[in-house]
User: Fold these one by one.
Assistant:
Number 1:
Amino acid sequence: AQSVAQPEDQVNVAEGNPLTVKCTYSVSGNPYLFWYVQYPNRGLQFLLKYITGDNLVKGSYGFEAEFNKSQTSFHLKKPSALVSDSALYFCAVRDMSNRDDKIIFGKGTRLHILP
Amino acid sequence: GAVVSQHPSRVICKSGTSVKIECRSLDFQATTMFWYRQFPKQSLMLMATSNEGSKATYEQGVEKDKFLINHASLTLSTLTVTSAHPEDSSFYICSARDLGKGPEAPGWTEAFFGQGTRLTVV
C-alpha cells in the first residue's frame, strides 16, 4: 500500500523566514502527491498536487512543493512565512493499489509562525 | 469551483439517539465520497468510501451498522451515526471526488473537503 510520512509533529518558524514542512512517500508506480492545510475546526483545504511534469509545483497562498524522486520526498515550502500560515499541514498520496481509489494522509505537521 | 458543503458544523446529541451528517458537492459531480474521522491533534482516519448508487466500502474496524452511509445521488452523501455514545464524539469530515471525467477535471486526482462536523454525544 502507498503511504506518506511526516517526520515532524511541529515546526516553528519566525515570520518572514522561509519555511519547509517535510514529507516522504512510499509508493509503487508513479506517485500522485498532495498537500492540504487545516485550520482549527475546519475541513481540509487543497494546496497543491504533483502528478507528473515539473518537479517544482506551485500552489495556493504562495506555497510550493518539490518532488524529489531519488529521495522519495515531497517537501512543502514557502519563501517567506506569514503568521496566518500557522495551521496543520497534511501530506497525502493517492492509493490505487486496491479496487478503491483512496487518498491516504500523513499524521500532520503543526506549523507555528512566530511574530 | 469544487466546493463541498457539510452540514451541520456542530451537533450535540443525547446518548442513544441517531445523528445524520450531510455532505454535498455544490458545483461538481461527486462520483466518490469519503468519510473521515479525526481525533484531537491526530490525522484523519478513513472510515469508508462510497460510490454513487452503490454500497459503501468500510475500512477495517469501522462498524457498518453504526455508521450508515448513503450516497444516493451525485451531489449528496450522508453519514448517520446510529445509537450514538460518548465515544463517538469526534470531528467528522467528508470529501468528494469526481472520477467520472479525465485527469484535467477538478476532483479527479485531488479530493475536496467539507468543513467538518463536530459531534458531541452527551
Note: The first strand of chain A starts at residue 3 and ends at 5.
Number 2:
Amino acid sequence: DAGITQSPRHKVTETGTPVTLRCHQTENHRYMYWYRQDPGHGLRLIHYSYGVKDTDKGEVSDGYSVSRSKTEDFLLTLESATSSQTSVYFCAIRLGSDGDYGYTFGSGTRLTVV
Amino acid sequence: SQQGEEDPQALSIQEGENATMNCSYKTSINNLQWYRQNSGRGLVHLILIRSNEREKHSGRLRVTLDTSKKSSSLLITASRAADTASYFCATAGGNTPLVFGKGTRLSVIA
C-alpha cells in the first residue's frame, strides 16, 4: 500500500527469542497502529502511537512492546516469542489527526513461532 | 473485545446479484467504516459514514447507519467476481483506535 511498508513480510522464529517487526511510513502521519489478525478473532489492537515517543496499549498488549523514536518508524517487539503469538501482524496509519479519517494498512507480516 | 459484529459470517452469491452485510456495535460512535481484505493482503478502506449521517454511496457501495439500533449495513450492487473478499466494519469514537469486527467472507461466483 502506498506510503506504508512492513518488514519482514514473513518470519519463522523459535519460542523464547525476541522478534522485532518494523512499520515504515513516508507521509508523516501522526497516528500509527499495530493489529494482529487471527482466525475467528478478526483484527485486535496491540499498541498504537499518537506521536514520537507517545504510545499506548491496546486490547492484546501483553508480551509486546513498541517504540517510536521517529515519526516514520513504529517498531513492534515480541520480547520472548510464544506459539500463541503466531499470527499475521498489520501496521496501519491514520490519514489525518483530527476529524473522521480512515486507515491505510500495510501488507502484513506473517509470523510463525515454532 | 470486538465492538462491531458482522452478519452473516459468510455469504455466497452469483455474479450480478446484490450482497448485503450487516454490522452491529455496542457503544456510541463518531463514525463507522467499512474495509475490504483480499486473501493474503492488507485491509483497504472502502467508505466512512459519520454518526450524523444515515446513508452514503460510493460507486456500487451503499452504506446505511442506524444509531438508534447501533447497526450498519453495506450493500454491494451488481456483484462481480472481483468483489470476493472479506469485509470488516470498524467503529471509531473520538481519537480512540478503530475497533474491528470479525468480518464477513463474501464469495461471488461467476
Note: Chain A has a mean pLDDT of 94.
